[in-house]
Amino acid sequence: MTTARDLALVAADPQDRTVVEQGDLSLALAGAELIDLLDAEALALDGTLLIPAGPAPAGDPLLSEAARWLADGGPGETVDDWLWRRGRDLAGRYRTVLEEEGLVAPERRNRNPLRRQRTAPADPSAARAAGERRSSGEPVLGVLAAAAGLTEQGAEAPDGLADDRTTVLAAVLQAVTELAGERQRRTIETAAFDNIWRGD
């Protein structure tokens, strides 16, 4: 399993009642893909610049797709650029692939179309392994899970990691902070607009 898949499986765990913002999870998954590509030596970093460095890893369609996206990004793409470009709707894509592969059961909708009821994973061994990795305190998955809002712990890049991994994790945390700020701004603007209509 890759870091990105483990993160997606942890987020899909029906025992975890945490409400996760899909945008935060998508950014964290995009960062996890960069970590996986670094581990597979398909990517190198020059500061924050992404440099394709080898063939796409085999056996994981989403990671292979990420490697193709990396090549399509062109020279000069930064880690931050990648997170926003690749991260768009990435959480939903991972959920769909995991469902198609039978690693998680499809989400069933309630009568209320805005509320989802989660079902147990179709293959609990994959989710169990991802959960064990998370609970083991593995630092990279811990930071990404915190960035996605799955845990309160580890919301900073830990010491002792390779510089490239630290660069990626710091960029993910910054992007999630920016997204939270944008959500807050929109909430304030919506509330102000509502007050105008109410005459407050």
Automatic annotation (TrEMBL):
It comes from the Bacteria. It is a peripheral membrane protein. Residues 105-138 are annotated as: Disordered. Keywords: Golgi apparatus, Lipid-binding, Membrane. It holds the Pfam family GPP34. InterPro entries: GPP34-like, GPP34-like_sf. This is GPP34 family phosphoprotein. It comes from Streptomyces prasinosporus.
